[in-house]
Fold this protein.
Amino acid sequence: MLRTSDEEYQLTRKIKLGKMTMDEKFAPLANWINKAYNVVILNIIIDTIQDDTTRLQLIFEHEKDTAVFLLKDRFSLSSRKRKAIEKKYRDLFQDDVSKSILVLFYAFEPLAREEAVASIPIKLRNAFKQKFSETLWEVAVFGQYVTFFFFTNDALHSAEQRKQTIAIKNEYYALLKPLDRFNYFTLENFNSIFDSKENFDLNYDSNWRWYYS
């Protein structure tokens, strides 16, 4: 699993920004993968890990691209597709292959969205929380998801009926969108969640780890 702080993400970010390009020796492999599976691959990174295993990291642009390589359960990778990519890699780089290959699939977009959410300045976040302090108990960020906690379930239901939740989402989105460097966010796909402190306390024992597990 990649994180926004990882070198692989930072290098791919520069490629997406046009500040650098993918290693040209991987272009034939990238073109083959794109054509064979109708996906968009941004970067390919190769290194060697324990026991002389070649780690082949494929970084696609969108989550839907990595989904192409999953089985119907949406959790397990297709061994057929993975082996096809491994075979193509061996064919192209016969003189630069160790005994085993570990193929990893990542998506750039979710990380870029997470980075944008995390980039909202603390000053603006605090101002937002202060503005809605009588309504919201907390605004919590987890990855690309933002959860707005009302104090009670009744308060949440009332806000939904009065469409106050829509207003809150719109206002927070206005803070986020200018930081969306790659234009991945729309108001519709902004992952805003509405919950209550009451639910957090009663069903998760006021424990953030349990809540986000």
User: Anything to note?
Assistant: The radius of gyration is 21 Å. The domain at 7-112 is CATH 3.30.300 (GMP Synthetase; Chain A, domain 3).
